[in-house]
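Re: beginner question about structure tokens

> Can someone show what the tokenized structure looks like for a real chain? I only ever see the sequence side.

Sure, here's an example I had lying around. Input first:
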Amino acid sequence: MGIITISRGSYSMGKSVAEKVAARLDYKVISRDLLLDASDRFHVPYAKLQKALHDAPGPLERYQHTKQVYIAFIRSTLLDIVGTDNVVYHGLAGHLLLKGLNNVLKVRIIANLNSRISRKMTEEGISEQKAREIILKDDAQRKKWTRKIYGTDPTDSSLYDMVLCIDRLSVDDAVDFICQAASTPAFRTTDETLRKRQDLAVACSVKTTFVEAFPDVAVSCDYGNVLLYATEKDAHSGKFKKIMETLQKEQQGIFNLEVHSGTSIPEDAV
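And the corresponding structure tokens:
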């Protein structure tokens, strides 16, 4: 089997759909757990990681590369989690964090604004105006985040394999469609998808070792051959070379490690 990501706006029933899909397929469901695991692994407060996945970077953050560092931590953690396969991830940016993996079924759940407002009013006991303001603000923030970090619009249907409107469908209808799609050959795990997932996990792990000191370094991995793309200045610094030496001794999954400077960065680099 494989991996399913479910993207959704707030109060679009995405959480309910994800949990029912996971139960139907006997998959592990992941959402908040991702940030908790990343927090423990990289010793970063949960609230800071949550902010990194929700709020678009401000001027100071863009200068300090803080959000870039935290997203590298989150992505590496998610790659480790999905390494066991049979996972449903519902949360922010799953379809982007797992970009490059062929056996990921990327689903977007959408719902009419009025129905979302109604659900929020009922669940939180607030006025219609307040519910509308909160949801619209949240939508705007998610769109701004995706554009700033990945240069895309989260509402762009081309980012997903399936877009389901929950207003005309019931939650169970949506679950049926997703489970049926997940069972097709296109999203099954193969030896090739396993190899690509391992390579991506290695690249993301290597990225985490460099990103705090060298935020502009990009990493790619193919059959365990790791390529680092760095500026001449970074590549010749003593700190950079020291990190490389440590990687070669301690990082599992690396067969060869090379540094490229002054060359273009491939699209599959992290």
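Each token stands for a local structural state, so reading them left to right follows the chain. The first strand starts at residue 3 and ends at 8.
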